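sry for the spam today, last one i promise. struct tokens for design, 129 residues
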């Protein structure tokens, strides 16, 4: 039947857009987690810096100063992820509408490499502290 193929196309089209929305929401959830954890790290480390007794240079208080920056960095990373998620969502939605969506493997590889390097830097920071 001629109408049956149109229904299948409409269902596939809707599934593709719904999958794009789910992916966008996953990015947003991750960004919210980064923002929340970054703010928590920042505020808690500032609290301990202000509330604790002074110690020798290079002691635990200097580690807390570094954590303040780490928390701020996580907030910036979360904000960047939100912006990137919005751009990606709109780009994929347009590609789906035109019927020419292709996965962006370059962005996936760059994002994976960046996370790997951030993890390696974290390990180096942990062992150096």
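last one done:
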């Amino acid at each position: 039947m001629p109408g049956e193929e149109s229904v299948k196309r409409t269902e596939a089209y809707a599934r593709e857009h719904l999958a794009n929305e789910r992916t966008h929401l996953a990015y947003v959830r991750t960004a919210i987690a980064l923002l929340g954890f970054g703010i928590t790290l920042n505020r808690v480390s500032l609290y301990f810096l202000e509330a604790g007794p002074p110690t020798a240079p290079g002691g635990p208080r200097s580690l807390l100063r570094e954590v303040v920056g780490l928390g701020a960095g996580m907030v910036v990373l979360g904000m960047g992820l939100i912006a990137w998620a919005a751009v990606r969502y709109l780009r994929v939605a347009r590609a789906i509408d035109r019927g020419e969506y292709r996965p962006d493997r370059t962005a996936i590889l760059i994002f994976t490499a960046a996370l790997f390097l951030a993890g390696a830097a974290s390990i180096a920071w942990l062992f150096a502290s």
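The helical segments are 2-51, 60-98, 105-128. ok im logging off now
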